[in-house]
Specification:
Elements lengths: L1 E8 L2 E7 L3 E5 L6 H12 L2 H9 L4 H15 L2 H4 L5 E6 L2 E7 L3 E5 L1 H22 L17 H14 L11 E3 L4 H5 L4 H7 L5 H19 L1 H7 L2 H8 L2 E5 L2 E5 L4 E3 L5 H18 L6 E5 L7 H16 L3 E6 L2 H18 L5 H7 L11 E7 L2 E4 L1 E2 L4 E2 L1 H19 L6
Parallel strand pairs: 3-12, 3-13, 7-11, 11-12
Antiparallel strand pairs: 1-2, 1-4, 4-5, 5-6, 8-9, 9-10, 13-14, 15-16
Length: about 425
């Protein structure tokens, strides 16, 4: 069981969400979707912080301080200082509470603190033995003798963490932010842009560093990627193949070849997301959670449908997702996969027939989904468990708004 509860933080009045294999929040701009996504990402992405502190033999208070600094870098102090907020995160048998009550405080469950201190003590002894060359690699692992000590340190820390309560916090998550077109516009000069930028959003900076490496991996290992990633969906979303020519990126189809900087806004938004998901598909680790802001950005509804095809395929291969969206089309497409799974459970639909309707995808079980809307600072589930689908009333709101206006205008039509 994994849950996040947020009260009185920024624009969030009250939110309680269960974290599952697929998580989706819909809402208008500025309602707090990204606040929840970034908060959960912070708490799920502690692996590097914990490992780096242990390697430096730093105590738990140092880890606590670094986590506070990271929180403030994501959510500047002036934005929440007047608020008495509370954030409560629990996974398995461990928990982390963040409060602003006479100052920012992180409160960790006792088993987390105890296990960290125990691992630190064990690692200090192991490190001393390694430094004194008292620990030798086994006969079947002689390669360790020629590896840097830092690698050996990490190997031992990995073992210690896996056998502790801290293992719950060791999932490696990735965050694909909105405004991805930025990385398409500066595709050729991304490294220099990132090195010279000082006031970019930390999530854009982090994703930029990740994407710089991933796009290179994508170009070098496309053959391997084809075995784990459905490139046909990527081609349908982009309306072309991704081709690299003399360090320039092009989107190529049978009608044209267009350089990425001249491509449409939808193509520029989608390409960094698609290349990142493609590389993650070959490095996938169990229970990792990939956060995607607005996967539908600037895409036509049929392309949004292809995004959902891709996500359903990857989810079936073990990738989990946390999605924020403005688009009811994304929810409508998601409902098709939920309905298919319900029909399969009731023996009205076979997997073979499903694959004929939507090839290379997989149905989605309602029990693996959390779906919410956020309005006026309140997070509400939009799952109708009776029908194992997302509530149709939520999907109809966009069209019903247009219909209401049309009906009001229709009243001015002269009667025959």
């Amino acid at each position: 069981m994994e849950t996040l509860v947020v009260k009185n933080f920024l624009v969030i009045k009250e939110a309680s969400l269960d974290v599952k294999k697929i998580n989706i929040i819909i809402g208008s701009q500025g309602t707090g979707k990204s606040v929840l996504a970034k908060t959960l990402y912070l708490l799920k992405n502690l692996e590097n912080l914990v490992r780096s502190n242990l390697i430096k033999c730093l105590n738990f208070e140092s880890l606590n301080k670094e986590l506070k600094n990271k929180f403030i870098s994501i959510f500047p102090e002036y934005t929440w200082k007047p608020q008495n907020f509370e954030i409560f995160y629990t996974i398995g048998n461990v928990s982390i509470t963040i409060k602003n009550n006479d100052g920012l405080n992180f409160i960790f469950s006792e088993n987390l603190i105890n296990d960290y201190n125990k691992i630190l003590e064990q690692f200090i002894l192991i490190k001393e033995n390694i430094d004194n060359e008292s620990i030798k690699s086994s006969d079947d692992d002689e390669v360790l003798n020629i590896l840097p000590k830092s690698f050996i340190y990490r190997r031992h820390i990995h073992k210690l963490l896996n056998n502790s309560n801290l293992s719950h916090l060791m999932s490696s998550s990735h965050f694909i932010p909105a405004s991805r077109a930025f990385f398409s516009l500066f595709y050729e000069n991304l490294f220099s842009i990132l090195n010279s930028a000082s006031n970019l959003d930390p999530f854009l900076m982090e994703f930029g560093s990740l994407y710089e490496g991933f796009r290179s991996t994508y170009n070098r290992h496309l053959d391997s990627i084809q075995d784990s990633f459905p490139l046909e969906f990527s081609k349908q979303i982009l309306n072309g193949d991704i081709i690299l020519k003399e360090e320039k990126c092009f989107i190529v189809n049978e009608n044209q070849s267009i350089e990425l900087i001249q491509a449409s806004s939808g193509q520029q938004e989608a390409l960094p997301m698609l290349q990142t998901l493609a590389v993650l598909s070959i490095y996938n680790r169990h229970n990792n959670l990939t956060f995607i802001e607005e996967p539908e950005a600037h895409l036509f509804p049929t392309s949004q449908a292809n995004v959902m095809k891709l996500l359903s395929f990857l989810n079936n291969k073990g990738q989990n997702f946390f999605i924020t969206t403005h688009s009811p089309y994304i929810l409508s497409e998601l409902n098709n996969y939920l309905y298919a799974q319900d029909l399969i459970k009731r023996d009205f639909l076979s997997i073979e027939n499903f694959e004929k309707i939507i090839p290379s995808t997989s149905p989605i079980d309602i029990n693996n989904l959390s779906a919410y809307k956020i309005e006026d600072g309140i997070l509400t589930s939009i799952i109708d468990y009776e029908f194992s689908m997302i509530d149709s009333e939520e999907l109809d709101k966009a069209s019903s708004h247009a219909s209401d206006i049309y009906n009001q205008l229709l009243e001015f039509e002269p009667q025959d």
